[in-house]
Amino acid sequence: MDRNDGYFGNINKFLFYKSVPERIRKHLVFWMIFLLFHFTWFIPLYIKGKLTQQVILLYILNYLRYIPMYYLTIYIYQLLSSWLRGVMLFFASFAGLLITIHFFTYLMYLALHLKFGISSVVEPYKYYGELYLLPIHHFKPVDFIVFLYDFQETQLLILPIGIKMVKFGLRQKEKEKEGLQHELKALRSQLSPHFVFNLINSAYRHVLPVSKKAASYLGRIAAVLRLTLYNNDTEFVGLSHEWQSLNEYVDLESKREGDRLHQRIHLEGEIQDFQLVPNMLLLTLVENAFKHGVYSNGYPCWLSVRMTVKEQNLRFIISNSKPSTFETDKTDIVSGIGLANVKRRVELHFAGNYSMDISETIHNYTVDLTIPFITN
């Protein structure tokens, strides 16, 4: 059964929040209920006429300290979970909880001492307060009972911390499951290019005796696929790799179109090994130009690519001839899937730190893209 269905779905909705405001709201509700429940101790004291300013402050400080104790303990657990697992993580986290309780309890009694004087605080808080404020090197053997009190205080944090631990456990299992799925996907993606290349090689051997030109074309297809498919799961690639893929693709399409296509590719500047760009970003722009400026045009056409490499950024300008007759809608040409993909990717990667201008004249379309390099 899926974790989002039925009984498990209700638990999932309770434990996992869809937004930060929802998380804050549920935490506030929990602590309000926690405090109101424990402040019911005021009722019998009020009836007996023993509800003094000191008692009110003592109870407020006593239960308010559980809030920072909880969040600090969770932070310690998250910190330790990066290095420890299993039993070691449990005992280290529990030790962190005891230290946290002792620290905030000490602060509570220090505040009471500064306000009223610890000797005038009601029992049994006077006794424990004197122990907490006593320097440890003055402890008698019986005074170490104060640490047993820290252990006793953990009972009120068992519920909220227990819920949090369950959430961490469920999240960890989800991450492990996702990791396995990604690994299987990666293994399948490695097999897919291998299978494609085997098919191309088989076709190459059969076509070669019939037509060397067709066999050569198949060989160029394999070269382009090798450059693109084997890096399909890589988010960033070297600029040199992207430039090589682009040239291989243009050369392949030029052979297909023959003399009908006039293409010009120009590189200005020097490509460095440490310069990275989003994988297939530039290649997508070239493919888009062929799709809308070359394939849809039965007449002589042209393609121009100019890439300028500077120290910190890259400028890529691609222009293609505009079809004299349209078989596709204009909005599809200017706002097709290819360009939409590029726009979204550069926005996600560079968050406004880029420029992308798309212009159109009577005779051509131009995309002018400038992005910063992602360095190793």
TrEMBL record:
Q: Which Pfam families would you find in this protein's record?
A: His_kinase (PF06580)
Domain named Signal transduction histidine kinase internal region: residues = 183-261
Q: Which residues cross the membrane?
A: 28-47, 56-77, 89-112
Top-level taxonomic group: Bacteria
Question: Which GO CC terms are listed, alphabetically?
Answer: membrane
This protein is called: Signal transduction histidine kinase internal region domain-containing protein
Q: Which PANTHER family match?
A: SENSOR HISTIDINE KINASE YPDA
* Source species taxonomy: Bacteria, Pseudomonadati, Bacteroidota, Cytophagia, Cytophagales
- Identify the keywords attached in UniProt to this record, alphabetized: Membrane, Transmembrane, Transmembrane helix
InterPro entries annotated for this entry?
Answer: Bact_2-comp_sensor_kinase, HATPase_C_sf, Sig_transdc_His_kin_internal
Name a GO molecular-function annotation. Answer: phosphorelay sensor kinase activity
Does the record's keyword annotation contain Transmembrane?
A: yes
